[in-house]
Every structure is written in C-alpha cells, then in structure tokens.
C-alpha cells in the first residue's frame, strides 16, 4: 500500500514554509520517496499528479531524472490530462543528450496526425523545444502538412516548429518553400509574423531560398505599407503604432533580401522613406520601428538622400531622454562614420555633448565616435573638445582618450608645433595613461623639427619644473634637455617668453628626478643619460655630473648601474672621444616600418663591417666594445663576420654602392589568422650582412562592416631566439578595408633554428571583446636557413 502523499498545492506550501535549507531538503526527499513508490506501483490515475510534483521539485534544482520514463507513459496515454503533463515533463526532463528522447518520436507523430488541435499544439511545442536532428528529419513531413491547416492556432505552432527544424537540419529548407509563398497571403497577424520569421531563417541559411524570396519583395512591401497606413487597431496597435513586432520583422527580412541586390533595393526605397517620415517617435514602439528602418536603409543599395535621412534619425535619437536609445544611436553612427562621414559630421556637436554623460557606456561610445569624426578640417576644434574631456573624464576612459588624441594629432596635425603642443598637453594632463610609444613618437617629432628645438626644450623644461610625477613627460623632457641643453641656456627663443636658466638649475632638476620616489627605472635612465650628455653641452665644470654618475655605479637597479659604470668608463678612460660619442642624435627618417628598419639594420651592418678588419689595435678594439655597450646589451651583441679580403669588396661595402651583391630572393608572405573579416599577414625580410636577424612585418586588415578597436598583438618565441616587438602603427583598423595596422618584430636567431611563433591577439569587434591564442609553425624555411 502506497503511503499517502501531499497534493501539489500542499507540497508547495510546505516547501515555502521551511525555514532552513535542511528542512526543505527533508520535505523534498520525503515526497520524492512517495513519488518513487507511486511510480513503482504503476498507479495510472494519479501518475500525472505525481509527475507534476516532480516537475516542481526539478524546477527548484533537485534531481528528477527518475521521472523520464513516466513522461513517455503519459504521452502515450489517450487522456488529454496525462498528455499535457507528459509533454511538459518531456520538455523539462529530456534533451538531445539522452537517448530516451527518441522514444517519443512515434507518439509525437501519432498526435500530429490526429485532428485534435490541443494535442497537436502540445506535440508541436515539444518538438520545437527539444527535438533533435534525427527527430526533425523523421517528423518534417508531418509539420509541413500542418502549415496549411485551417486553424490559425495549429499553423502558428507549426511555423515555429519549422523554424526549429531548419536550424537543426538546414538541408530540409526546400520542403518549406512552397508553403511559405502561400502563407504570405495570410491575414492573421500571428501567422504572418511566424511566416516572416520562417522566411528570414530560410534566407539566412540557404542562398537558393534567398534568390527565391527576392521575387516576393513587392508583396512584402505591400504588407508593410498596409500596416503603416492602417489606422488604430485595438487588437494589434501598441502605443499608437500598428503591430510594431510585425513591422520590425518585415524590415529585417527586407534588409536581408535587399543586401547586394539592386532591384530589390529600388523596390523598397519609397516605402522606407514613408516609414521613416510617418512613424510616431513619442513612444518606444515607434523608436524600435525607426531604428530597424535605419539599419535596413544602411544595409541595402539605398539612395543618398535616404541615407542622410537615416543619419538624421539617429541624430534625433541622441537627443532622446532614454539612455538605451542614445546608446544604440551612438553604436549605429559609429558603424556609419566610415561610409557616410559627411552626414554624420553634421551631428558632431551633439556627439561631443554626449561625452559628458554620467553613464560610462554612453561616454565610452561617444568618445569612440568623436575620435572617428576627427579629420584634417576639424582637428583643431575636436582636439580642444577632447582635451577638455580628458581633464575630467573617468580614469577608465583616460587611456583611450589620450591614445585617441595622440593618434588623431599624428594623422591630421596642421603644423609640427601644433602637433608637439598637443602631445605635450596630453602628457601633462594624463601622462601615466598614454601608450608606451608616445615617448618615442614625441622625441622623433622633436628631432625632425630643427626649427622647434629651442621652443621644445623650453616648453618641456617648464613643464618638468612644475610636475615630475607624469613619467612619460619626464622621460621626454629629460631626453630633450640632454639633446638640446645648450639651446635652453642660450635664452634666445622668440616664440616663448624670455626664460633665463642657469646650469645649476638644470642639473638640480635632473638630480631631483633621479632621487624622486615616483621615478621609474626607465625614467632614471633617461635622466642619467641627459646628465651625461649635458657634460658636453655645458660650459662649466663637469665635477657635479661625475659625482652623480659615480653614485649610481653601485645602484641596486642593474640597468641603471650598467649605464653609470659605462659612463664612468667614458670619463676615466675615453674622455678624448666622449664628445663624439655623446653628440646629438641624428635625424631618423619616418617611413614605413619595414623600409625604415631594413635601412637601419643595413647601415648598422655596414658600420660594424668597417670596424671589423682592425682587431689588431687594442685601443680600437676597446672602443668598439664600449660602443657596443652603449648601443645595447652586451650579451645580445652579434659580432660581424669578417669582410671579404679583396679591396674591391671592401670598397663596395664601405661606400654602399649599387654594385653590392644582389639581394636574396623575396620570402613569401604568410597568412596566419582570419576571422569575421579580420586578417593578419606576416611578411619577412632578412637584411643583408646580418643573416641571424629576421624582420617580420605584421599587417592587420579589416574587410568587415565594423571597426576593430583596441587591437593588441603579442608574440613569444623559444628561448634560443631573441625577440623585440616594435610599437604598432595604431590600435584601430577601420571597417571595409580601412588603413591597416602594421607592427615590426625583430627576431635574432644565432643558431639558425626553425622558427616557431606563438601569437596572442586581443581586440574589440562589433562591440564584443575577442581573444585568440595560436601558434605559427609553418614559417617559410627561407627565414632561418
């Protein structure tokens, strides 16, 4: 005899009355024991009640797998009360991972063939919820027959089940094409909405279906026009908009059908203009229809005036009080800025106002769009706005804002002085947030503008005297003072206010940087080198400089100690060549990374080759070693191979004449990554004269419809190699084949071992973060043999 058990309502009340989790588990375990006993006794009259209680227990997160077979028994029962609970249990307890779900295929097939609409609805719901590919293949024919049933109730569920079947088995798409054409004449909005959803799924998964339904674009246009022109309907209107759900779904389907198809696009242009101008925007339902209309206009071959209208709608969205609407407007404008730049530019003041949003996501999107709107004609005005935002923006946006301003200034700077002032302002305001290459870019800019040397050193000296906490600023200022300290002391710059600086003040400021607890080791290295260079530029005694340098000869930081020891050696042993070694840096030509690095390495190889034939003189040999120490770490220095003893060969290498030996055959490029239009290619160069060195240029292109932002490429090589990563040309790749990102890898392979690379890519694409880690093992053999 089965012990009496609780009713479902009593079970729910008792579980809710439990004060602790232990009491709840006790109630559930006791009731599950009653349910198991009832299942074993095979009580057919109360089986559905026991399963209903078990389903509630399952919804609370407790195991209920022992009720799976009872679901099958209830589904096979002729009673509707049993079938209802059985199908519900199958949807909750069964899935594709369990073989038991296949046992209900025959029961679903039998129920679909019956004429009882509630039973057919239960079977269709179950199939669309947990039907596997095998079940869909077996039951697709029955579902296709129900698509044209007289009852709208059955047709709606059959259409949604057909959507599930297509997603599981795309090969079955063709059997639903004839039915869809007939269902488009349906007047029932629920059936029509399901039909549009089914056609959309077919077009996305089958090119043949896409071509088939491009013929019905006029019919879809007429349906949407009827919706737009129809007056208020109690049954379908929401906030004064006639069935916005159906309108949105039709617009999405039109966007798919009109993409890359001129004829279909022309058929819907007039309708899209009518929807864009007549839809009420006072309620959210109208905004949803308008936003979908904008997306459709931008994806098809629409007229220029229509695209301007779409951008203006997004501009009105920016003035909406709803933050969600403003966010989607910013995201959409960011996608359109590449293709419709002039139209988006009209809304620049509104976009700039969005920078002051309190919502972090809105201000971030406004920042990205503002940076994308910068061009050569508005760079001054936009930079002022962005600099003002940089002073007050949240810390998590400061790095992106600073990097964006620096990139915009590098691309569109009207003058070198304006460019330098802009970078200096960014370093002063948010120096700790800028990218690592900002220091190198500014020093290169200053070195290349000879007419601004005096102006630059004075501006940087004044900024350094006010604040030594911004490390990139301190590094640039120290470099500039070391290079052009003589111009700082002359005091004859006409572009700045008169500034009288004494030698002792300059030395004291650099010593303050060296002693500051805020200075990084790299910053101290810049300051120490600046002091050393000032020893050849100041007219006074170098005793103070020698004292400071000697102090850091026992510094705990190995890099700083090594510099100090080398500089002390210059004072003690090589004082006669100190001025030549510490002369001003030569001008570095700013070209493509590949060409610039190749030329640099070739010249370095030629200089080393000139010095190699004279190892017999000890003084020259020591000087060569000392230069190696100054130029780079001694353990990484590669000794050059001996020269050809023939006088002709020496003359050719000395003069670097065109009659030098021919360059080796080019190494083929290699594509190592491609995802959603983002592609990464590697090109290789081995500079002549340094066979152990390999230059790899990484080129990132973007053919997709969305920008790639915050791109970072990191690399690793085996321990027998030496890898140096140069700064990339940027961190944003514009959509649709915009300016690519390039980055140079310098790899030293002294053992000529096979090259293996491990790359990690991180970037944002279509608003989603992406991270990829992969190995490159198919590098051409010409790179190391």
Automatic annotation (TrEMBL):
State its location(s).
Cytoplasmic vesicle membrane; Endomembrane system; Golgi apparatus
Cite the entry's keywords alphabetically. Answer: Cytoplasmic vesicle, Golgi apparatus, Membrane, Protein transport, Transport
- Bilayer disposition of the protein: Peripheral membrane protein
Q: Which SUPFAM superfamilies match?
A: ARM repeat, Clathrin adaptor appendage domain
Name its GO BP terms in alphabetical order.
intracellular protein transport; vesicle-mediated transport
Pfam families for the chain:
Adaptin_N, Alpha_adaptinC2
> What InterPro entries has UniProt attached to this entry?
Adaptor_Complx_Large_Subunit (IPR050840), AP1_complex_gsu (IPR017107), ARM-like (IPR011989), ARM-type_fold (IPR016024), Clathrin/coatomer_adapt-like_N (IPR002553), Clathrin_a/b/g-adaptin_app_Ig (IPR008152), Clathrin_app_Ig-like_sf (IPR013041), GAE_dom (IPR008153)
Q: Which residues form the GAE domain?
A: 665-780
Q: Which SMART domains match?
A: Alpha_adaptinC2 (SM00809)
Q: Which domain of life is it from?
A: Eukaryota
Region Disordered: which residues?
593-616
| Cellular component terms (Gene Ontology) | AP-1 adaptor complex; synapse
Entries under PANTHER family matching the protein: ADAPTIN, ALPHA/GAMMA/EPSILON
Task: Give the record's family classification.
Answer: Belongs to the adaptor complexes large subunit family.
Instruction: Give the protein's recorded name.
Output: AP-1 complex subunit gamma
UniProt lineage: Eukaryota, Metazoa, Chordata, Craniata, Vertebrata
